[in-house]
Specification:
It is built from 14 helices and 7 strands. It is an alpha/beta fold. Strands 3-2-1-4-5-7-6 form a 7-stranded mixed beta sheet, with helices on both faces. The structure holds S-adenosylmethionine (SAM).
Length: 304
């Protein structure tokens, strides 16, 4: 049987490590540990004077990341770096990480395969489960609360804005008529009936609605904005930020923020165009198809 840890394949791993320029003795912050695919490789390169600070707001992911990193550190023995894991949203990083103290910041947004594959987490319409979608299972409204309590207008707006779904009004009306909506399967059927797939569609008709609810429930875009604001303050001069996005709403925030920061003398943009996965990686790991990596280097003479 394949275990959760074996199934997960980190996206754009070599490219992320290369842009981070992990060196022996570096301090690296991984904002999105997930199953520690990227973090494990970082830890192997840090040496005994180095440090990894890892964040994940999903308590189950944090636990699995800890097990994985403990194992890697045990293999490394005396060569293992210090590892500090923090079970909070990465927007809280300034509360835990001193200004100007890290050499690299890595973020790999979105859901992990662990979250997607576990039906009870409610992220996927491929398996029927509770309509939850919270990464941080300790707090915040679930997707079920949102679809059952928001007004039709609010639902339509969020599906339009975060799902970039043109048929959002029709979908919102069908959801309100179908309440209470409690499972992913029920929601997927309501959406597919209200806005069936069109000939040219390559994705399931509920994909955009699910994306919208997930972004809303987890305040994902606010988190990314907070990170882009905090990163230059947490990095040492010449420190590097490496960000992997999975859809245009995420990537746009990163791209615009790096560009604006470059004008203000905060960033040197290292990726004129986003780095994407090659054919071989896409074949091995279909999730990498939509990944876009962008990187920036903090300019030396910046007062922030
Ligand atoms: C795509 S996975 C990361 C995979 C990881 N790079 C690996 O190779 O195993 C994203 C992870 O980030 C976490 N996450 C997403 N947004 C977060 C946030 N704002 N704060 C903390 N963790 C977050 C999710 O819970 C999930 O476990």
């Amino acid at each position: 049987m394949t275990s959760e840890k074996q199934r997960h394949v980190p996206v754009l791993l070599n490219e992320a490590i290369e842009y981070l320029q992990v060196r022996s003795g570096s301090a690296i912050m991984d904002c999105t540990l997930g199953l520690a695919g990227h973090a494990a490789e970082v830890v192997r390169q840090l040496g005994p004077a180095g440090k990894l600070i890892g964040f994940d707001r999903d308590p189950h992911a944090l636990q699995l990341a800890k097990e994985k990193l403990d194992q890697v550190c045990a293999e490394l023995g005396e060569q293992a770096p210090a590892v500090e894991l923090i079970g909070e949203a990465f927007s809280a990083a300034p509360l835990h990480v001193a200004p100007g103290s890290v050499d690299g910041v890595l973020a790999d947004f979105g859901v992990s395969s662990l979250q997607l594959d576990e039906a009870s987490r409610g992220f996927s319409f491929m398996a029927d489960g509770n309509l939850d979608m919270r990464m941080d299972t300790r707090r915040g409204p679930t997707a079920a609360q949102v679809v059952n309590e928001a007004s039709e207008r609010e639902l339509a707006d969020l599906i339009y804005e975060y799902g970039e779904e043109r048929r959002s009004r029709r979908i919102a009306r069908a959801i309100v008529r179908g309440r209470p909506v409690t499972t992913t399967g029920q929601l997927a059927r309501i959406v597919a009936t209200a806005a069936p797939a069109m000939k040219q569609d390559r994705i399931h008709p509920a994909t955009r609605t699910f994306q919208a609810l997930r972004i809303h429930v987890n305040r994902e875009l606010d988190e990314i904005k907070a990170l882009m604001e905090a990163a230059p303050k947490l990095l040492k001069p010449s420190g590097r930020l490496v960000v992997i996005s999975f859809h245009s709403l995420e990537d746009r925030i990163v791209k615009d923020s790096l560009r604006e920061g470059a004008h203000q003398g905060i960033w040197t943009v290292l990726t004129k165009k986003p780095v994407t996965a090659g054919e071989e990686e896409i074949e091995r790991n279909p999730r990498s198809r939509s990944a876009k990596l962008r990187a920036g280097k903090r300019k030396t003479a910046t007062s922030l």
